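Let us work through a complete example step by step.
Step 1: write down the sequence.
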Amino acid sequence: MTVTVSVSIDVPSLAHGVAFYCAAFGFSKKSEPVPGVAVLQGLNIELCLLEKPAASKPSPKTSDQRRFERHWTPVHLDFHVADLHAALRQVEALGAKREQVFENPEHGSAAFCSDPFGHGFCLLERKSKP
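Step 2: predict the structure and record it as tokens.
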């Protein structure tokens, strides 16, 4: 069996989502196969952004509603970066929020953040081995 993986993220504005993920992490838009969907590529993955309005239901079998203020989810993206503080400045300038930073000079520091749409993600600093 051959398996490939892509990650899909609901955003309230497709244009804003494309702008953030392309500028913050170097993705490029591969296609817009149907209205409200953009496929980005980069970092050896495809990221699919799905434009979904706030308060819409993620499934007809739930009473839950999409919300784009900060929310918790058990699944999030980790971006491994060479310079944590430079990456943090870049994502914050694009609308991400810094939530917590852990400094570890020996193994690499980490920042817990949320994108402009309330989705959590981490920046993990790569430390090269001496």
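Step 3: interpret the result. Residues 19 and 94 are 9 Å apart (CA to CA).
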